[in-house]
Each structure stands twice: as structure tokens, then as C-alpha cells.
Amino acid sequence: FLFGAKCVIKGIKPNSREPFECYHMSDIEAGLGLKRKHLIAMSLLVGNDYDSGGVLGIGVEKALRIVRVFSEDEILDRLQDIGKGLKPAVSGGIKSGDDGEESHSEMNKRSPHCSRCGHPGNKRNHFKSSCEHCSCDSGCIKKPFEFRCECSFCSKDRDLKEQKKTENWWIKVCDKIALWPEFPNRKIIELYLSDSFTEDGSSMSWGTPVTEMLVDFMVFKLHWDPSYVRKMLLPMMSTIYLRERAINNTGKPL
């Protein structure tokens, strides 16, 4: 997929009910929201065929979180910025420190909360008559374990803490990537994005699989019977045919 393939066949297993695995780029886009350049970015972070190590301390889960921050058009440029020691802004995510200080100042003015029920107010008043949230004749109800107050002040406080946590995480990740030498490797990026040449300079092109060539390959490499190969290839070729027909008729995948 990093080279631009729309369908990848792997895991060939003779004498099996499922003799091969078939993956489609459209399924990855629909399921994970990742496009080709996102996958290239992930390979640079976690490792690939040309750099198996990747960035130390960056696993698949963390890399996925990083690449999802940016669109396909900007992800590789933003990795370039991070490699230079910059920390690209995250749209709709991390806010400036000034905003945080102002919000924390507002939080200092928040109303007191009852130590018994956890709702806004104080325990003495709630002991006489329950608060509007508890609505109990015999006073407030003792707050349960892991109680979360949903008043505007507490909700804002949680949001600020989560924002700060995300901001610190982003800074640490960017610093970790920036320490990695020559990141991102431009040669690897160019190799993946080249649609017509391989690493040794030979040309290549993408097209529909030629059935008879696949049959000959399976017979030669795996010693399968030609009739068995055609039988196993039929579902795959049918799927490819239907997908291409849908694209040609509507301009969009089926």
C-alpha cells in the first residue's frame, strides 16, 4: 500500500480453505481513516523494509495517534518540521499556555462543593435539606466511589487537565522524534512515492493481475495443480472485477 497498491495479496497457504489473504486500501481508509501518506508516515516512525528500527520508543499505537492529527496532504511535511525540532500546532487540540492560565484563574473562583454528596454547595446546608441534585428528604446522599461532579466548573477542570496532559504528551513525542538522526529519511519517502521506479532504478507499473501469469507462478513456486489455482483465484478475481467496474461507472469505490 505504501507503494500505491490498491489490493495486496499475501499469506499464500496451499491446501487450505483460505489459500491467501487479500487486503484492500479502501478498507483501510474506511476502517482506520488512513491514506497512503499516513501509512508512509507510520512506517517512518515504527520501521519499514528500508529502516527496520524506526524511532526508538514509538510503537504502532503511538504512531497511529500521531499521524491521525494531520491530513494526508500535510502529514509528511509536519514530520519534516518535527524532525527539525519544531512542534507543529494541533488543530482543535492543544491550546496556548496563556489560555490555560486564564482558565485556571477562573477555576480558582469556583463555588465550594459538599464533601458528602460532591455537588455544588456545602455540607452544613445539605445536612438540613438535600441539594437539588440529590432530591432526598433525609439530606444529601453520600457520593459513590469514583464520583464525578458534572457541574460546569468541574467539567472545565477535567477538560483543562486533559488538555495539559495532551500538550505534555505532544511535546515529549516531538522531542523524541527530533532526537532521531536524519528524520524523516527523504530517500525512503521518495522511494515509496515513486509510482514508476524501484530502488534499483528499474521501471514498474500497476495493473490488473493477469490470471494465467498467477497460475504459472503458483504452479512453479508452490507446485499447485492449475485447476486448483484457478478455483482459488476465482473469488479474488471476481472481487477485483466488481470493484473496478464500480469505480469506472461511478468514480467511487463500491
From TrEMBL:
A Pfam family per the record: XPG_I
Parts of the chain that traverse the membrane: none
Gene3D superfamilies: 5' to 3' exonuclease, C-terminal subdomain
Cofactor: Mg(2+)
GO CC field: nucleus
GO terms, molecular function: flap endonuclease activity; metal ion binding; single-stranded DNA binding
Main location: nucleus
Keywords carried by this UniProt record: DNA damage, DNA repair, Endonuclease, Hydrolase, Magnesium, Metal-binding, Nuclease, Nucleus
Domain XPG-I residues, every copy: 1-49
Region (Disordered): 90-117
Localization per record: Nucleus
Basic and acidic residues compositional bias, start-end: 96-109
GO BP annotations, alphabetical order: DNA repair; UV protection
Record-stated family: Belongs to the XPG/RAD2 endonuclease family. GEN subfamily.
Protein name, UniProt field: Flap endonuclease GEN-like 1
Species classification: Eukaryota, Viridiplantae, Streptophyta, Embryophyta, Tracheophyta
